[in-house]
Design brief:
The protein is mainly alpha-helical and 495 residues long. It contains 21 helices and 2 strands.
């Protein structure tokens, strides 16, 4: 099915604008906390409904764009309002809508400036949808910056004890990378206009730009500066551990489940297609960074006492494996990396939800003060065990499918990389089992009477648990949208 034959209803615009409209309505409700909660929930449910509809319509994938919307915007400067969705964007849109719904439910009991809190969550959702759908560089950059602003305020206002330092660090790291990308965008735009006589920021037009080797390397570096920081790859990762530790529960869920995926998505959507020669030359360096991050973060996680920081390092380690799959430049590895992005969002996102629930009940996140939760809150502990086993890649649960596809794909082209990565995956089992042992098993360090999961918490965790099992046993429906998308990207083009 081609874009021209599709119905013209602007479903992609709806995905972007619905959360924005919900955010504005939350702000208009001022201090009315109850109304803001229900408004945010209704908005996120509507967005999730639209994303599900698109998944059912296009879940079998196909070649070409699944949806494409192109409207004149600032024609004088070649800036157009172009949204496009392929199989990769479809999965990321579905993940965003699902996790934002969970984030709204997780934040249900926020009382302080609740209308602003929910407005920021919805603004973040709008920015994320725009990042995954934008097909014009200025539009992409606009949404890239929009997503930065609400996360900064979520951390700075509702975060932990060191929230302002963590928020400032997050802002400065990501802004520095973003400015490098902006300079590269404008330079590419100017070169394309000088060559063709038509100035355009539309990515499809810029793919035709002829660049010298030096130009391509420098422009590629500008884009990658933003994407490597946001991913984040070691040694540009230190902002993430602080941000995740200090962020409120819903902010941590969004940050680890969605926001750090935007850097990897940017590599796939922009950096690799626009600069194919520089990309191929950079792949060995990217693989080294990915492998180093895989081991370094795993080692830090193993030695961490704060379970939230442990999971932050776990995210960095997992994303190292995702990036390694991309560096292999092989079909199976790429499909595995994209699937692993989705499953990581579910498994680690659920673990951050559970950490928030544990902290709420016990007042601590320290392994030295936890233990024995199974006897005190068995259902909560069972969920913690399920998502921990999924995170370490247990066969039959979500992460296993993506990890095995990455390792198989990498092994076909770079066996040494695959063997090293496999050792890193084994290391992941060590820190996850230490986390489980120190949290839910053994004798309780402090005698407590803990409530088990409430109905709202079941509503958050049960759908995640079902998806984790489904993706582990039958991931085919989530791989199918990738079949017609990944191969053209590997050949240096777009869908």
């Amino acid at each position: 099915m081609t874009a021209a034959s599709l119905p013209q209803f602007p479903w992609l615009t709806l995905l972007v604008m619905l959360p924005l409209a919900g955010a504005l309505l939350c702000l208009l409700h001022g201090n009315r906390t109850v109304e803001s909660r229900w408004l945010a929930l209704a908005t996120s449910l509507a967005v999730f409904g639209v994303s599900l509809y698109l998944f059912f319509c296009h879940g079998d994938g196909g070649s070409g764009w699944l949806r494409y919307e192109d409207v004149s915007w600032i024609e004088r400067y070649g800036i157009r309002y172009v949204l496009a969705m392929d199989g990769i964007a479809l999965l990321m849109v579905l993940l965003t809508a699902f996790l934002q719904l969970a984030a709204i439910l997780l934040a249900w009991r926020v009382e302080e400036k609740a209308s602003y809190f929910f407005a920021l969550l919805l603004l973040l959702e709008s920015g994320l949808m725009g990042i995954f759908l934008a097909y014009d560089l200025i539009l992409f950059y606009l949404f890239w910056e929009i997503a930065l602003i609400p996360m900064f305020f979520l951390i700075a206002v509702w975060g932990g004890e060191n929230r302002r330092r963590a928020a400032l660090k997050f802002f400065l790291y990501t802004l520095a990378g973003s400015l490098c990308m902006l300079v590269a965008m404008i330079t590419l735009y100017q070169i394309h206009g000088d060559q063709s006589g038509t100035y355009s920021f539309v990515i499809g037009d810029l793919l035709q730009t002829k660049l010298s080797s030096t130009q391509e390397v420098w422009l590629f570096a500008g884009f990658m500066a933003a994407f490597i920081v946001k991913s984040p790859l070691v040694p540009f990762h230190t902002w993430l551990t602080d941000a995740l530790t200090e962020a409120p529960a819903a902010g941590s869920l969004d940050l680890t489940g969605l926001l750090i995926k935007t850097g990897i998505y940017g590599m796939i959507r922009l950096a690799f297609p626009l600069f194919p020669n520089a990309s191929r030359d950079f792949l060995p360096i990217l693989a080294v960074l990915a492998l180093f991050g895989l081991f370094h973060a795993a080692w830090c996680a193993y030695n961490e006492d704060d379970i939230k920081r442990l999971l932050a390092y776990s995210s960095i380690s997992h994303l190292g494996l995702v990036v390694l799959g991309l560096a292999a430049w092989q079909l199976t590895a790429w499909e595995g990396s994209i699937l692993l992005m989705v499953t990581h969002g579910l498994t680690t996102g659920a673990l951050f939800v559970l950490v928030a629930l544990i902290r709420e009940r016990t007042g601590t996140r320290s392994l030295q003060e936890l233990g024995g939760l199974w006897g005190q809150a068995p259902y909560l502990s069972a969920m913690f065990l399920l998502f921990s086993l999924a995170s370490l890649g247990l066969p039959g649960l979500a992460n296993f499918a993506g990890e095995i596809l990455v390792l198989l794909g990498v092994f076909q082209v770079h066996p040494v990389w695959a063997v090293i990565a496999f050792a890193g995956v084994v290391f992941a089992a060590a820190y996850m089992l230490r986390l489980v042992q120190g949290t839910i098993w053994g004798p309780a360090k402090v005698k407590r009477t803990l409530p088990d999961l409430t109905a709202r918490e079941w509503l958050i965790l049960l759908p995640m648990a079902i998806l984790v099992v489904w993706l582990g046993l039958y991931p085919a429906p989530f791989i199918a949208p990738l079949h017609g998308t990944v191969a053209p990207l590997l050949l240096g083009g777009m869908p």
